[in-house]
Amino acid sequence: MKTALAAKNALIDLNQRLVEQYTAKHSIADIVKHRSQFVDSLLTQAWQEFALNTGELALVAVGGYGRSELHPHSDIDLLFLVNDEPLSAELESQLSLFITYLWDTGLEIGHSVRTLSQTIEQGKADITIATNLIEARLLTGSENLFDLLYDNIRQQDFWPSYEFYNAKREEQIARHSKASAFDLEPNIKTCPGGLRDIQTVAWVAMRHFDAATLEELVEYDFLAPAELEELLECQNFLWEIRFALHITANRNENRLLFDLQRQVASLLGYEDATQLAVEQMMKRYYRTVRRVMELNQMLLQLFKRATLGHTQALEIQPINHQFQRRGRYIEVLDDELFTRANEEILRLFLMIAKNSNIQDIYAPTLRLLRNARRGLTAPLQDNPACRKVLMEILKHPRGIEALSFMHKHGILSSYLPAWRKIEGQMQFDLFHAYTVDEHTHRLLLNIERFSQAEQKDEFPLGAILINQLPKKGLLVLGAIFHDIAKGRGGDHSKLGSKDAIDFCKLHGMNDHDGRLVAWLVENHLVMSVTAQRRDISDPDVVAEFADKVHDTIHLSYLYCLTVADICATNEKTWNNWKASLLRDLYFSTQRVLARGKEKPVDVKARVSEIQAKAKKELIRRGLKEKDMDALWSRFKTDYFLRHQPNQVAWHAEAILKHNRDEPLVLMSKHTTRGGTELFIYSKDKPKLFATVMTVLDNKNINVHDANIMTSKDNYALDTFVILEQDGEPIIQLSRIQSIRKALEKALASENPKLPKFRKLARIMKPFNVATHVSFLPSARHGTSMMELITLDTPGLLAKVGDTFYRCGVTLLAAKITTIGERAEDFFILQNQSGAALDEPQQQQLSAALKLALKSSN
Q1: What are the φ/ψ torsions at residue 390 (nearest 5 degrees)?
Q2: Burial of 680 (0-12, 13-18, 19+ CB in 10 A)
Q3: Taking 50 as the threshold, does the pLDDT of residue 598 lie above it?
Q4: Ramachandran sector of residue 250 (left: φ over 0; alpha: ψ -120 to 50; beta: rest)
Q5: What residues have CB less than 8 Å from 138, skipping those under 6 apart?
Q6: For the chain, first and last CA: distance in Å?
Q7: Average pLDDT, stretch 558-578?
Q8: Dihedral (C-alpha) 562, 565, 567, 569: value to the nearest 10 degrees?
């Protein structure tokens, strides 16, 4: 007998040969079948040598192995089928030795030992077991026993076709609810559009027709030859990825993890060009799963309707002489309509917009639509009749509903060649959770949400503005084109703006509307950048932004596009902090536009006003006016200009009641712009900012805003806006106390023993963001504005603060922005003389930051 070690080495040699065949572009279907056949041979030989071929046992392959599909680390699912009579002790011992032998060879064995009656009983009770049995294949052993199993599972009382269909359909719905087809790290087996969706179609059809392969379903007229070809093409590509995943991970891995994606793309033969190799691979992946999802939807509906005959009679309601509504579906009345007049493809979606009762496309109509789509020889936008229908869709109140269906079924890409280029296009980062086309689709759905009453609490300003826009369709067009030029190289905002202008001219729109759409596309990032990465409490910043938006109409359009865009980037991006920043910028800009440029602020009067309001509150709380005056005489003017009266009162009360020799750490119970306000009052000392950042990083806290100030007698008056990792304010009392105690301990010590930085998360390891330092013109006299772009690593702000200290730079304020794996932070700085940094000082700081952060990247 071949020893387990010899068998193990033979399997290793086999895998190596299969890898060589894979890289030489041999058929993936042949490769996975070859491995299955090799394992068949190994098992049947060992079965004979362990003297198990007694007629009392059958060795049965089930699951994927039953389908003769084995990837390098796939599980070998086996059923040891036993007569209903108990096994002899000797045979049971031999079977145990056989299973141990298989494990020793290195095969990933999944097995069960059941009698025939147990197998049938458990199969009837469990849809997963039933599915495995439908794919059962005899390897060796008792043919009579296997034939009995085969006959039993094909009886009507063993999962009738309709019950089997319903169970697999429910199983698929549950599986789809747990993941998106467009996950950053998709599971190629279980995500929507993955291998399971292809198998589900095969399972329900094979159960009904008793077919062994997908090819047989063409003979039963269930699958069209072109649909079979498409399914197999999609399956083979997903198999290629799965095979490469197993090789790269050296385990049974079905998730396209970030740290594996580059190697998988390389094994598949992709190379970096205008787009990264990994982005090219993922583009094909996302396009493939979209095709599988559409086929799965259509075929399962066709199966239920045409084959099972269990579809309940659906109410038929005429729409016009071309379309009717069948229940919740739209149905075409003429099989030749789409090919005879291409504009009727668009009219189908216009009917969806006009009929709120329509929720989907009837499967036979979807099949006709797919055939017509494949038969197109030119973009639909080239047809004047199609352009006319599309403009009707854009003007309709439910036009976004129609556009959503057009996106789902590939008609947007058939209409707009530029849309086809972004279909399935991913960006290899942690910020953009969706492909470019799916992100834009979600942006459109967010615009629609602004109009929904139940969304008013989440989007109070958007809910008002969406109904005040002169033409909602212009916002929709701005959304469609805002990212349409991504991946081409160059500034996608400018390139997309040109595409938008060309589109508007082609569709006969007036110059004013065309310019507004193009302006929205070119400037779609401006409001987000200004709010999140600039000091919007500075009147000059707001005035500069007001100059760019021109008027309140442009401002309202831009606000709606910006909010919808941020919310569509990923599920974690939008939070109260960002909502507050954008709302404040909107109203500040609106005031500037309403009355022209802000008049110069009367600083003395403004400070007096803030102090008076704070005093009124503090006197009510029992504090003495002379104590307030004594305290505030130590504070610089800038402190009052950068805080609201309620903050000034909160700080003052706490300071006056506090022992001045010890650090004071306050955390607000109320939220500041959607975040928790942290205030630190302490004798100023070197590395104070770096110390605070180290403690907060160790507590897994995100810092979003910082105002760093020093009193006339050298006390720190530092304010931070902080959030939990999920973007929520810090409200749990025990959490607040833990943070405060850690900060007080660190600040009270001359040489605090600070915690080590957290380790870099696994998902961050594949990324390398070059550190970039740039200095911007500063509107505030005597200050320098600096932007830092680098990899967002644990302890980043502490390292930055330490570098400021070593370079003799004073931090006045900071805006901290994390975009996926990238930190894009903004700082207002001075040198030790209280002036802006000169050129040599800027160069020194830039070099020091790049050196300090080099190890992080």
Answers
A1: -60, -40
A2: buried
A3: no
A4: left
A5: 58, 59, 60, 61, 146
A6: 54
A7: 89
A8: -140
